[in-house]
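Side project, low priority. Logging it here so it doesn't get lost.
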Amino acid sequence: MASEPEFVKIINEPLKTKNPLVIAGFPGIGLVGNITCQHIIEELEMKYIGSIDSRYFPPLAVLFNGIITMPVRIYESPKNNIVVVISDIPIHPTASYDISKAMVDWMQSIKSKTILSIAGIATTTGERRVFGGATGVEMLEKIKDKTEIFQVGTISGISGSIMTECFLRNLPAVSLLGETPGPNPDPRAAVEVTNVINKIFNLSINTEKLLSQAEQIELELSKLAEQVKTTETPSLPKKEFPMYG
């Protein structure tokens, strides 16, 4: 009988960290997980050590400065005892179960002390709060004064799958959800999430660069909104035209 094909492959160099904090960020609302993880990688000057590949992933290659790179990458900072898993591609819901299972297997194999899953949560409040959830009472105690505890609700996508898998295995895991008004990339939400990570895990990741990027992105978006408004303003008397499609 043929052996079952390997649907998820995780390839990495031997880790220098012992019992690391593993942070995972995948594309979602406001790209909060991605932006936060990318910022942490840059600020802590983390080293690329491996990747996750799967037949579930879309057939594509990611280019960075002209060089092919993997869409789901693993970085390490031995100095800070942190490993980051960052993805440039959204994970399809049907694949989330198998991929999160393989990821948590791997996290256990590297003896991760805590797993942190970052995502976004869309609200209409206009605020940038950070909601938190945990797999057990001990982790909840650690985050309850530093986040808005997510009382009732669901965490969808791979972020939710990772948390469920950690809960089933009795692993200490935390989910941080950055509040954002919509689907647009939201560096301000990522700044707030980073501030909360600093408080929970006694880190000092600088957010100034991210804050200045936030202002730049907001400026670009407001310019775009103005341009749209200008193009939508009729300069000639309106005539009735037939509508199609």
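Brief comment: Residues 233-245 have pLDDT under 50 and may be disordered.
Revisit when time allows.
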